[in-house]
Amino acid sequence: MTYGPEEIVGLLDVGATTRVDPPPHPAPYEVGQVVVTRNLHPRTHTRLPRYCRGKRGEIVRVHGMYALPDRRALGDESTPEYCYSVRFTMRELWGEEAPARDSLLIDLWDSYLEPAGAEER
Description:
The protein is an alpha+beta fold. Helix content is about 15%, strand content about 30%. A five-stranded antiparallel beta sheet has the order 4-3-2-1-5. The longest helix is centred in the N-terminal third of the chain and has 10 residues, at about 5-15. The model has no long low-confidence stretch (mean pLDDT about 90).
């Protein structure tokens, strides 16, 4: 996308965001909910790290609804999804040798997640 001088001044005033405010529906996941990341292998851009695929985590924050970066990288800004901070224990990601008290927060979108238990169906 190319911006002209007027658009650039506007972006400087309000910031470059793709947030949908207000969102058209409530978030499918809520703080405290346990989720599992989907094991995706797209041919294009994704913000879902490989080391997190198929792993269990807990929603710790709902950021709001934004354009899905995977689609935005292809020029589609009309595919919004909720974004969440998901906490993964280091042991979930790296195994029993990892520190038991450490964790990692990663921002992930709806289409990367399933409710815990859904992976067993």
